[in-house]
Amino acid sequence: MTSRREFLKYSSALPLIGTMGSAMAQADTIQFGCAVPLSGPFAANGKFADMGMKLAIEKYGKVLGRSVAYSAIDTEGKPATAIRRVQEAIQQKNTHFFLGGFLSSEALAIGKEVDKAGGVCITTAGADEITGSECNRSTFRWSVPTFGAIEQTVRPLIERMPKAKRWYTITPQYVFGEGLLSAAKAVFKEKGIEHVGNSYHSLQEKEFSGYLTNAMAAKPDVLLLLNFSTQSSDTLRQAISFGMKKNMTIVMAWASGLEQFESLGADLCEDVYFGAQYWHGIDAPFNKEFVKLTNTALKEDPNYSFAGSYICTKIVLDAIAKANSTDPKAVIAALEGMKYEGLTGTEEIRKGDHQVIKNYYLLKGKAKSKMANKNDYADIISSGKSFLPVDKTMCKMV
Q1: Where are the domains positioned within the chain?
Q2: pLDDT of residue 5
Q3: What CATH number should be reported for the domain whose range is 148-281+360-390?
Q4: Contacting residues for 77 by C-beta, under 8 A, at least 6 apart
Q5: Mean pLDDT of 44-53
Q6: Residue 30's closest CA among 87, 98, 88?
Q7: CATH homologous superfamily, domain 4-144+283-358
Q8: I need a labelling partner for 110 at 20 to 30 A (CA). Which of 162, 205, 365, 375 fits?
């Protein structure tokens, strides 16, 4: 099996268009910034996002006859660091176009900073506030927000498992986790589900045994994990080591995709349910083209962090071409209402809140013996589009 480390090694074969120094940042160059965690707990996701932008920039090369370049901006997953480094990119490299953050807290901070500077920011973070109460003209979001993720994981599973009436949640204590938890509680209340307990944890937490002990004591039918990336992987590993998969259904509401399955392995993922923004096996024309491109460039299938960054970069590049301008105001106007063939099929950017309307997926881990190839870790059980109407999002564009 090709490991994540080997995938990263393959990426070094890509042209280093994104690492141009200030001497190359000429006035006619369109400068992008990839503002994601490249160090800290979420560094692996950030590195794949960096690779995704690099591949998109390399594929396009030029737009409107002008060269395109990018800079990697390490946010460290910290809003204050993200703001400072985005400011530096704006002031020192004349950067106007940003991919902004994985963590919702840093994505919100980056979006506000880019809006102040009159640029364009697109993100894959999940907090409803990004295209809700804290929306702004500069910020767009490709990923489905927390509301839609819960609607397409918790709701269909309640329907599939009518006897599973007791659910326990484990939640990271920041805006993203709170959004998932709030949405889950709303569905629980509507469907008559007993929420038998919740454990909060910090973004620095690595040991989850205490939270899992509390969960086992509550005797739930379903354990719902609302954390992300390495934290959700660590929680799942520890839960299975405690034998919890034998006594309850385990659901990860927001999986980080193929890289997470690779790190966990098929045996741990078997019969676990995963919510996903993206899966390389999606049967959509553009996704098939994208998988072929990634196979050729990296000798590997794309994961979510890589794919999300690629499509976000492509969306903005296409908007620049559509606007026939690099003026951010013109690019924003081109993005609003834009319809295109995306990774999940036909996708559309809603003008009222800058939310991309796309599918969210419910996956179920497969037994190793049933995998058709090394990356066939899961089946798509269901998918759908669940979004609050604009007048319910609390987005007030200024």
Answers
A1: 4-144+283-358, 148-281+360-390
A2: 55
A3: 3.40.50.2300
A4: 37, 40, 41, 42, 102, 103, 106, 203
A5: 93
A6: 98
A7: Response regulator (3.40.50.2300)
A8: 205
How does DSSP assign 329-366, residue by residue?
HHHHHHHTT-EEEETTEEEEE-TTT-BEE--EEEEEEP
Please give the Cα distance from 211 to 121 (Å, whole number): 36
User: What's the one-letter identity of residue 27?
Assistant: A
Question: In the beta sheet, which residues pair with residue 70?
Answer: 32
Tens digit of pLDDT for each residue in 245-283?
999 999 999 998 899 999 999 999 999 999 999 999 999
Instruction: Judge whether 4-144+283-358 and 148-281+360-390 match in fold.
Output: yes
State the helix-helix crossing angle for 209-218 and 229-241, rounded to 10 degrees: 60
* Whole-Å CA distances, 39 to 43, 163, 224: 5, 43, 28
Residues 6+ apart with CB under 8 A from 176: 103, 104, 105, 125, 126, 127, 146, 228
378 and 269 Cβ atoms separated by less than 8 Å: yes
Task: Give the count of alpha carbons within 13 A of 180, CB side only.
Answer: 29
- Kindly state the average pLDDT of the residues 188-198: 98
Instruction: Give 26's DSSP letter.
Output: -
pLDDT tens digits along 161-178: 999 999 999 999 999 999
Residue 381 near residue 155 (C-beta atoms within 8 A): no
Which tokens hold the place of 126? 């999940």
Task: Compute the distance between CA of residue 131 and CA of residue 134 in angstroms, rounded to an integer.
Answer: 7
Copy the structure tokens of residue 286: 């553009």
Cα–Cα distance between 10 and 302 in angstroms, integer? 12
Angle at 72 between CA 279 and CA 11, to 5 degrees: 50
| Closest residue by Cα to residue 343 from 261, 386, 300, 282 | 282
What's 165's DSSP letter? -
